[in-house]
Here is the input.
Amino acid sequence: MPDRRTLESAVALACRAPSLHNSQPWRWVLGAHALTLYSDNDRILPATDPSGRQMVLSCGTALDHLRTALAAQRWSSAIERMPRSPDRQCLATLRFRRLDESSDTEPSDTGARLAAAIARRRTERLPMAAPPEWPSTVTLLQELAEDAGAHLDGIGEDERAALDDVSRRISGEKRADPAYLSELNWWTGHAMFPEGVPADTLPAAGSAVAVEREFPPGRATSETSGEQDHAAILLLSTATDRRLDWLRCGEALSAVLLACTDRGLATCTVTHLTESEDSRAFLRGLTGDGVPQVLIRAGVRTPPGPETPTPRRPLSEVLFREHPESDSR
Ligand SMILES: Cc1cc2nc3c(=O)[nH]c(=O)nc-3n(C[C@H](O)[C@H](O)[C@H](O)COP(=O)(O)O)c2cc1C
Here is the structure.
């Protein structure tokens, strides 16, 4: 096992992963020979995410962040997903192997760069400029998604107007749903709690992007506020819609976001259009097969916005020891 300091710093980096409304619905338990990831079902958002799909997806992003953080420290992770366990919240068990100094599997520059991208990545909700060199980037992102067990499609510019229309319609429906709204208001727009989405990261009135989820107006503005968004739009889908698909799709989401960050691109995860069968059917119509799970906007943020990261819960609330009394390392 990696020593305690290495594991703690890797788990802290893993918890920089994105999650629905920054709910951080994960719990890590450190045993003598393995680290186990559980979902924290107290952090499910029942009105937005009744099945817990996005909760498991969020945990998948943390799982891939953890693997990436440890790989950069020369540890490879063997991951058992959905292990046999009486606890339904148990999502994955990780066992580690030290990479030999001389082995040809030593971490590449890319591995170190991806780990460094974890701390730089932010969800950017303002309009973006178009990403440069997009065709070669998309090919790389598609390979990363396939490796993680998901499928990535680009949504064409000619579909954008229809996508914006559906987004506005869905936002209108959600505005009329009191349970959804009270959940949204509970989780978003407040000061710097260690969870939830701070107002500083939410678009000010008139700055929002049509394809985005509608949030209460915040304080974020930029030179592009109110302008048309030129971000590329990607859709992550899975073959089926089981908990394992959600977890793996979260891992794919993490891989795609970190690769974009590494290439200097801003990203935004968007999921309100995957929360009803109606809008999921619309998305499926754009890309063909597969179950739509997550949209991603990727582009260039102009000019660079504030670098303050969205807060996270302290490690003491998310990392536990199986046998605390026996751990004196
Ligand atoms: C499953 C999932 C769904 C999300 N849905 C949205 C969304 O619909 N709109 C949005 O702006 N951000 C969305 N996010 C991004 C989170 O709000 C964001 O990760 C969180 O606030 C933490 O901020 P950070 O990503 O800047 O660290 C989602 C993230 C995940 C993992």
In short: The mean pLDDT is 93. The longest strand covers residues 90-98. The pocket of flavin mononucleotide is lined by residues 18-22, 54, 57-58, 61, 122-123, 125, 197, 212-213, 268-272, 310 (CB under 6 Å). Residues 134-299 form a domain with the NADH Oxidase fold (CATH 3.40.109.10).
